[in-house]
Amino acid sequence: MGTAITFKRPDGKDASGYLANAARGNAPGVVVIQEWWGLSDQIKGLCDRFALAGFDALAPDLYKGKVVPYHDTDSANKEMNSLDFMDATTQTVRGAAQYLSRNGAKVGLTGFCLGGAVTIIGATKIPELAAGVVFYGIPPEQAAKPADVKIPLQAHFANKDDWCTPELVTGFEKAMKAAGKSFELFRYDAEHAFVNEQRQAVHDREAAELAWGRATEFFRKHLG
């Protein structure tokens, strides 16, 4: 449904990604950030779903063509740890937001796992954004302080998550509330990565559909 594109980062360098356009010409935009596996077919499929829901969706390729197979967690961890999160967010992700906002459209940011952490960093550092939806990812506080979040955020976390633990989520929630931020939090009795339908071991269809409905409704409210 979508297509591979190249777009410019603020520093003038080229970045690539997967773009799926909505049927209408003046659609709002959503930047979609990959899990630690890379720009997989599953993430491209989510862009297609956003397009069907009425948004232009662009997933920037943060790993520059590398996609890790789902069973290879060591390689995924290596790729994630070698990613320059600040450069990825303030340059590649911001470039994607600028691309989607070029005709005056409002733009949101969403991401999963690694992409959830990038979404929170982006919420503090990308001025083109109007809203963000986080899926089971929180960056270290030195990367993004809740007090610095500049946009309304909605967040989806799993109660059986050993990476983004419930304790970590509670701490983030308290910090967001203490800072007086616009923040909606939902917890699901599911595993980390429950939205990913290609991973049958963790996918929870009921939770995924509930979260998807909440996310698209939130973006319609804030992006138009």
Automatic annotation (TrEMBL):
Q: Which Pfam families does this UniProt record tie to the protein?
A: DLH (PF01738)
What's an example of a GO molecular-function annotation for this chain?
Answer: hydrolase activity
All copies of domain Dienelactone hydrolase, residue ranges: 17-222
Q: Which domain of life is it from?
A: Bacteria
Which InterPro entries does its entry note?
A: AB_hydrolase_fold, Dienelactn_hydro, Dienelactone_hydrolase-like
Q: Where are the transmembrane segments?
A: none
Q: What is this protein called?
A: Carboxymethylenebutenolidase
Q: What is the lineage of its organism?
A: Bacteria, Pseudomonadati, Pseudomonadota, Alphaproteobacteria, Hyphomicrobiales
